[in-house]
Amino acid sequence: MRNNRGKIRKLKAGTGALVLAVTLTLTGCMAGGGKKPSAGGVGRDAQGSLKVAYFNEQAFYQQYGNAFQAMFPNVQLEVVPTDTVFSGDDPVAGMEKLLAEQHPDALMLTEEQYAALANKGLLYDLDAAIKQDEFDLDAFAPTVIDLLKARGGGKLYGLSPSFSSRALYYNKGLFDQHGIPYPTDGMSWEEAMQLAARFPVKKDGDDPLYGLFQPSQTTEAFELVRTIGEAKGLSYADADAGTVTIDSPEWREIIAAVVDGYKSGSISMPSSQDGGMGGGISLQGAGGGRTFRIGGDSMRFMSGQAAMAIDDSMLMMMMGIGSRTGGADVSVKAAAPAGKGGPIQFKDIDWDVVTLPTDPSQPDVADGMSLENVFAINASSENVPVAWELLKYANGEQLARTNAMSAASLSSRTAFKKQEEGKNLDAFYALGVNAQILLQNLPEGFEASFGKLASEQIVQAADGKATVDEAVQAIQTQGQQLLTKALAGEE
């Protein structure tokens, strides 16, 4: 099973990522005798029906359907809602079932679904279509194409019009106030934690101050440990060998550093409840399709209570860029932070961003990027030409230009990078994909159970109820038991 931690984080945060399955049944553009047609597109005079299975009919027409209908006026559109795919326990299995029962030609998938279907041979290799149409992949951010190929086992089975990427935000005013140098692109994790430790921590009271806040969606104390370790090329388990490998000097050193940060308060301890969603902000895009949430912890960066925060582009939209770039199309609902009597008061912060911390051994890659939706074609489709037209439109320059100003996500097309005077927004685009993480093969359910176990032990160490050595030993011993059971297929 391929690693899908990034997408699991999004599902935990309740983002409600959409699934689009598009069924295309077109006449007049088919090769005879059931033979798969060439990958090239079709003209405006194509006739037939376009059956679209989408989360929400209104959202589909607003985002894609109306314009696509204008491009192909003789194609009849029909929308079939797919909300049941997400309401089920397993969105991947739900999409596989939809594929088998409805036989769609084109699909819009989450990153997790895309990886699963691609690696089962259920998606169409886009290479022929791209070459025949001379579709310009160079117009896309290389990291997006690299991630699509990595998730597809080396081949390109889909295109994604947007992506999410994390960066390290920092409050210039707090750094200036305390005489601490600003963070920089390419810092190591050790350097970032050292910067965080230089701030006078105030964990209690109505106006706390932290050196570093973790991402909005983080719910586990182990997540930062894992991120730092994987940046160094470490793995905590080897499924092929059947061994847990957390009891090593390298992992022990990382755990000790993070525990020290949790103890002192220089690094925020993640909220165990929905990524700090107590008092979070919900944002729903036009058309009702996609919901974003900013956790209460990230809100504290906006209120000036943290010197640095790791987060994605939604945070910068909330701090004012959205209102200056068409963000009025997004509705905002704010609540009081957990355990407090009133809403957080946002401040006019002088902020900027740098790249996520990395490791000197792998300075150009990070684990901060994910794909929000991926358009792909059924490998068994007999309607590849028109399915390809939909992919081209959904990932095309016209739609990218339209969405560039209002969307909270980052455009995959480099011509439409988000820009703001005086802000280092290139930090969101600069780092490549840590493909090593995606190649990990861990048994179903083990990652989640191991993360819970490790987090419990790290919290024990941070609370002074166990030493780091005791915590590491417990993680190693109990983690090995979890892996052995998972490999044996036991619950």
From TrEMBL:
<dbReference type="InterPro" id="IPR050490">
    <property type="entry name" value="Bact_solute-bd_prot1"/>
</dbReference>
<feature type="signal peptide">
    <location>
        <begin position="1"/>
        <end position="31"/>
    </location>
</feature>
<dbReference type="InterPro" id="IPR006059">
    <property type="entry name" value="SBP"/>
</dbReference>
<dbReference type="Pfam" id="PF01547">
    <property type="entry name" value="SBP_bac_1"/>
</dbReference>
<keyword id="KW-0813">Transport</keyword>
<protein>
    <submittedName>
        <fullName>ABC transporter substrate-binding protein</fullName>
    </submittedName>
</protein>
<comment type="similarity">
    <text>Belongs to the bacterial solute-binding protein 1 family.</text>
</comment>
<keyword id="KW-0732">Signal</keyword>
